[in-house]
Amino acid sequence: MSLEIALVSVFAPDKIGLVAAIADYLFGAGINLRDTLYAALGQGAEFTAVCELPPGVTVGEIERGLNTLPELADAKVRVVSYNFDPESPTLGRVTHRITISGGDQLGLVARLSEVFAQYQANIVRLEARKLGTDEGGLYVTRFAVCIPPDLVDPCLATVGNTAGTLGLTSTVEESEYDRALS
Q: Is the pLDDT of residue 180 over 70?
């Protein structure tokens, strides 16, 4: 019998204990979490995980069970079969973490995403957040990317130039994972 893989997605009002409630339910059902993301999005929150289901447990059972949790009373819960390979390929490896900050710019994510595509860099994670006025009112965008080794220098130079043209600052950090491999 092959291992059943599911994608669990929950969108709910953000509250303390939300992740604990979801993770505890999944643990109690014998579900192993693989790649998992959680993010507060304004007053909402999103939890997404690729999960290994134990034999005999269905996606429908998991969805129904999550919907019984009091913490998810106002949530949108979706559990579906995950038909992709759950193993992270080379493109899922993070080689660099790039932070762009400054004033909010219409089209910023689009322009930077185009730069990464131009240099065949895969965006593994993306976070963009407008900070409150007590935090400086900055717009901060963070990219975790996988850049092909032979295109690192021109890609990072273009990202820096694009940010500079928009009056923004950029910082680059080589991934610890990537350093460990070299």
A: no
User: Residue 69, exposed/middle/buried by CB under 10 A (0-12, 13-18, 19+)?
Assistant: middle
State the pLDDT at residue 87. Answer: 74
8 Å CB contact between 47 and 22 = yes
Residue range(s) defining the domain that contains residue 10? 4-81
Does the pLDDT at position 182 exceed 70?
no
CA dist., res. 97 & res. 74, Å (int): 34
Q: What is the CATH number of the domain that holds 48?
A: 3.30.70.260
Structure tokens at 94: 């993070």
Mean pLDDT of 8-26: 96
pLDDT of residue 181: 41
Query: 35 exposed, middle or buried (CB, 10 Å; 0-12, 13-18, 19+)?
Result: middle
Global pTM reads 0.73
Q: Look at the chain and report how many structural domains it folds into.
A: 2
- Return the closest-CA partner of residue 117 out of 146, 149, 78: 146
Other CB atoms within a 10 A radius of the CB of residue 53 amount to: 23
**Phi-psi category of residue 10: left, alpha or beta, with phi > 0 → left and psi -120 to 50 → alpha:** beta
Percent of the chain topping pLDDT 70: 90
Q: How far is CA 145 from CA 57, 80, 125, 180, in A?
A: 35, 27, 7, 16
